[in-house]
Amino acid sequence: MKLFVTALLLLFQSAAATQSIQGRVLRAGSERPVVRARVLVAPIVGSRNDPLATSISIESALAAGVSAAGNPGPRSSLKIGGDLKGVFTTMTDSNGSFSFTNLPVASYRLFVEHDDYVFTDYGVVERTKAEALVIPLVPTGVIFGRVVDPFGEPQPAFKVRAASNPEELQTDPVRESLSDDLGEFRLYGLSPGLYYVGAFPPPTPRLVTGLPGISFNDAYTIQGGEINGPPAIAAGLVPTSLFAPEVKAAAILTAPIELEAGGKIDAGKLVAPRAARIHVRGQFVDGRTGQIATGIIGGGSAIPLSPRGAAIPAATQNGTFDFYGLLPGPYLIRGATSDRLTGELEIEVRNSDISNLNVILRPPVKLQFQVSPELAQARLMLTSTRIPNLTLTIAVPASGAMDMPNVPTGDYRLSIVTPDGKAYVKSAGLGTTDLLVNGLHVDDSTSGVIQIVVGLNRD
After folding, report:
1. Which of 52-61, 256-265, 382-391, 441-450 has the least mean pLDDT?
2. pLDDT tens-digit series, residues 279-296
3. What architecture (CATH level 2) is domain 365-456?
4. Which CATH architecture has domain 277-361?
5. Which residues, 6 or more positions from 387, have their beta carbon under 8 angstroms from its beta carbon?
């Protein structure tokens, strides 16, 4: 009988150990209720093995917006995702009210999301908090406008992007939309703030001939289009107007747009200029002899630097090159020979052809390193800051002293890799040069021992 009474008491206490969370969701700065907002509460627990442990993720509803640390960005529309294990959800009613009852006793993290408002992380609601919550939501805004050419004609299929700084328009836009057949675009779901806006043209077919392994008569696909070679033009099979020496270029607003909460801003007309297709001609020169270099591996390449892009190849004949179809912008012209000569030259392409360039090719360099303190199973890595996919690695011996032969000339970033991933380059210097600040520039004048001090991250 005593055992039966004890069991009833435990059952009663378990049933009583619940709590409630209630409140209203309002449009920020007003008493206007937000209807059908999704409210989520996730219990804060101390262990993944706790029965209440949650499994959620904050996901971007747009093209970008969550930092590497998992924190919402300032310009993002976000959504709760994951399998929602241990998460309780509800919707606000016509009065903006919500209520959770019979929740297990715990502290809860509360989130609110709505398609027309900025994702809100309210924070932690402690188990002792009894009063109703009032949660303001900030309405999102819209930027709209038109993309046209210099003659006022609408430009469809342009990618129109908004970002918090000009550099991120290409790499990490907050919002992206395509212009329609009237050239019109609409960027919605934007948090209040400053936005840079740019419109980028659809991929343009590029006529390329004479590449290694490709016949002059073959079609070649690059940057989104396929075009037959000059014989098709000569035979009248392709209109020569298709190969007009100009292409559409990006249109970027020079000044940012300040968007207020719930604002609707007309960005006006984004005028996309037409840029000429440019020839860049020159020759690769053997720096040892001053003569034109031969045996260029795979021809030369032009590497776009801003925005960074894949290398554009060009065939070489007797050490000369001719890049055709380069759009305005900075490029790195690079070549390498079968006997390990390498060289590069940075150029700025504008609106006229460039000729008589000399790209000096030089032998590889042997670098000397001293790494301290002693590390087990460490590898030193040199990653090119300009050439895509160029990384050199070498094992670090117990002494920390080593030579790395045959390093191509160029600019590199130093790093240390260990199996536990805790090592990092704390300092690196060559003479008086701080390589963490200035990077490692390698040419035929590079000499001396590169001193590297390694640090270890602690858990």
Report:
1. 52-61
2. 899 999 999 999 999 888
3. Sandwich (2.60)
4. Sandwich (2.60)
5. 303, 332, 334, 344, 410
